[in-house]
Amino acid sequence: IDTFLKESFPPGFQWATSTESFKVEGGWKADGKGETIWDRFGHEHQAFENQTIDLACDSYNKVDYDVYILRGLKVNTYQFSISWARIFPSGHRGSLSEKGALYYDKLINALIESGIQPVVTLYHWDLPQELQDAGGWTNPSIVEAFKDYADFCFSRFGDRVKTWNTFSSPWVVSHAGYGTGEHAPGIKDYVVSSYQVTHNMLKSHAEAWHVYNDNYRKTQGGKVGIALNSDWAEPKNPALPEDVAAADRYLQFMLGWFAHPIFVDGDYPAELKTQIELKRNKCPSSEPARLPVFTPSESKRILGTADFFGLNHYTSRLVSNIDGGCTPGPQGVGDFQESVDPSWSSTASDWIFSAPSGLRMLLRYISKQYLNVVNVPIYITGNGMPTEYGGDTFNDTSRIEYMRGYINEALKAILTDGVNVQRFTVQSLMDGFEGKQGYSERFGLHYVDFENPERPRTPKQSAYFYSQVIEQNGFAVHFYC
Fold first, then answer.
1. Which InterPro entries match (predicted)?
2. What is the mean pLDDT of residues 317-340?
3. Cys-Cys with 135: which of 139, 155, 374, 468 at CB 3.0–4.6 Å?
4. Residue 477: inside a domain
5. What is the rounded distance in angstroms from the CA atom of residue 462 to the CA atom of residue 397?
6. 3-state SS, residue 125
7. Residue 324 belongs to a domain
8. Any idea what the CATH number is for the domain that residue 171 is in?
9. What is the pLDDT of residues 383-436, one digit of tens each?
10. pTM of the predicted model over 0.85
11. Residue burial 41-60, b: 16+ Cβ < 10 Å; e: rest
C-alpha cells in the first residue's frame, strides 16, 4: 500500500480554486449580455427540475463577497472564465458591451488588491447563441471570431492577467455538446460534428496563442495554454495485451485527441487515425467517424502553442477490449469498454469515483508522453468531487478524503517522480449550476443557499481543510484530516 507523504510542496507553489461563468454569474441578460447556449438549455427545461442559470449564485452582483471568501480560503490564485456573450453579446466585436467588460475589470482588480493572481479561461462551454445559430463550433468561421474575442481580452485585461486558458475541458464540448447531446447545444452527431468541433477548437486555440505571442507577450509577459480534461485509464486485466492496448486507445481518444496536435507533432495521434480507418474498412455500409485533416501549414501553426499543460482530472477507469461494432462514438469506434474498481469510493456523480493514485499515474504519463517536444510545466486546472443536494451540507468528510488523497498524489508526482507540477486547483469555490444536474450536485468548498434570493455562501469543512493545506504548503505539519 502506497503510504501518505508527509512533506511540503515546493516554495512558490500555486494554490487555486475555480468557478465557471455560466455556473455562478447569473445576470443572464443584465446590461445587455447576449443569450448563451446554456441560457437556452435551461429555458428549454433540459436541466434537473427545470432549473436555469438566470440568477445562479448571483456572482455578477457579488464581486466583493466572492473575493472576501477567497481571502478567507487563503488561495494565492483564482481561476474563472469569461462569458463571451457578456462582452460580445452577438459573439462579434461590433456588439461590444462595455458594462460586461467592466464587470471583469472589477473582479480582476479586486483579486489583485487582495494579493490573488487571476487566471482567466476564455471559453468554458457557454457559446453565444447567435454563433450557435450559425453552426457554432462546426462552422470554420468561428476560428476568426474566437481569435478576435481573445485579442480583445488580451488587450483589455492582459496588463493584469498573466495566465490564460484558451479552453477548459474542450473534450466535453466535442463529446457531450456535439456527440452525445447531453450538454448544450444538445447535438447528437458523433460521426461528423464532434470531430469537426475538435478540429475548429484546436485551430482557434492556436490562433489565440499566436495573437498573444505576436502582439502581447513582449509587453505583458504572460502565459497562454489550454486546460485539457482526462481520466486515467488502466487495463482491466494487465496480463492481457489487448486490454493494455484498449487502455491506451482510451487515453488517445480522450486526451491525445487534443494534446497530441499541440504537444507532439501538430496532428492527431496515429492510434486514433488508425483505429478510425480500421472501423471505416470494417463498416463499409456506415461511416462510424469522419476525422478532418490538418494541412501542413495548420499542423505547423498548432504545434507548440502552449506555455503550460493544463489538466482537469477527476477520476479513473478500468478499460477492457471489446468489439464495438459500427457504433459511432469513442467506445464503439475505439473498441474499448470502461468500468470501475469496486475499491474506488463513489460520489454523488455517476461518473466520478475516487481513485487518487490515478492522478499520479496520469501526471507521469503526461510528462513522458507530451512534454518532450514542448517542455512546459503542468498546472492542475481542475480537481474535485460533488456531494448530494440535501446531504450532509457542511460536514463534507467525503470531499476532504478525496482532496487529501488527490493533493497528496500530486505531491508524490513532484517529489518522488520529478514531474514539474506548479499549481493545484480545487473545483469549485462554491456550489453552482452543473449542467444537466442543475443545482443537485454540489462541487463547492462553500455552500450556496439557492432557496435564498441573496444566495449566501457558507464555508464547508472542506474549505477549512483546504485553507490548512495552503497555509502549511502541504502536509509536513500534522493537522486534522
1. GH, Glyco_hydro_1
2. 96
3. 139
4. no
5. 7
6. coil
7. yes
8. 3.20.20.80
9. 999 998 777 789 999 999 999 999 999 999 999 999 999 999 999 999 999 999
10. yes
11. bbeeebbeeebbbebbbbbb
Per-residue model confidence as pLDDT tens digits over 366-379:
999 999 889 999 99
User: How is residue 352 written as a grid cell?
Assistant: 466520478
What b/e readout covers 204-216, taking b as 16+ CB neighbours within 10 angstroms?
Answer: bbbbbbbbbeeeb
Cell reading at 306: 502552449
Percent of the chain whose predicted confidence (pLDDT) is above 70: 99
Distance CA 477, CA 344 (A): 27
pLDDT tens digits for 41-94? 999 999 999 999 999 999 999 999 999 999 999 999 999 999 999 999 999 999
Determine the Cα–Cα distance for residues 277 and 297; give it in Å rounded to an integer: 23
Answer for the pair 80, 107: CB distance below 8 angstroms, yes or no: yes
In a domain, 479, yes or no: no
Of 207, 78, 219, 223, the C-alpha closest to 155 is 219
Band of residue 481 on the pLDDT scale cut at 50, 70, 90 = very low
List CB contacts of 1: < 8 A, sequence separation 6 or more.
none
Which domain range does residue 168 map to?
A: 14-472
Scored b (16 or more CB within 10 A) or e, 332-361 reads bbbbbbbeeeeebeebbbeebbbbbbbbbb
Question: What's the rounded Cα separation, in Å, for the pair 110 and 59?
Answer: 13
Domain count along the chain: 1
**What gap in Å lies between CA 364 and CA 382, rounded to an integer?**
17
Whole-number Å distance between alpha carbons of 417 and 2:
14
Backbone torsions φ then ψ of 7, nearest 5 degrees: -140, 175
Phi-psi region of 74 (alpha: psi -120 to 50; beta: other; left: phi over 0): left
In a domain, 480, yes or no: no
Helix, coil or strand: residue 94: helix
Q: Which three cell numbers stand for residue 264?
A: 507532439
> Strands 457-459, 163-168: parallel, antiparallel or unpaired by DSSP?
unpaired
Beta-bridge mates of residue 8: 474
